[in-house]
Amino acid sequence: MGKLLYGDPRREVDIDDRTLAHLQIVIAAKLRRREGFFLTWRDDGAVGDGRSSVWLHHSIPLYFRFSSAQRHAVNREWLDELSKAANHAGGLHLTEEPGRGSAAR
């Protein structure tokens, strides 16, 4: 389980490494263009059954920490889906990987 660390003080979000690898690509593309957007995910059941959102902006510190050195193969279909969501007014909502069926947290 990797972590997305954001802001100062750091907000830590647990995200599995495969999902985090895909998010890194999508988020980097948006921030490279200096485009801010919301990232939304379902909360872990241990903290309730809600969802959380964070505004991502190029001026706020962002750190991706992977629990493994393994590099994951990229699922182009999922990248396209996540990229389209990130460009939508509602922001990027973390979704399940197409064809995998495992929930992304």
UniProtKB/TrEMBL annotation:
Specify the domain of life of the species encoding this protein: Bacteria
Q: Where is the DUF7882 domain?
A: 1-97
Alphabetically, the GO molecular function entries are:
ligase activity
Keywords noted in UniProt: Ligase
Q: Does the keyword Ligase apply?
A: yes
* InterPro entries given in the database record: DUF7882
Pfam family example for this protein? DUF7882
User: What's the protein name?
Assistant: ATP-dependent DNA ligase
Q: Which organism is it from?
A: Galbitalea soli
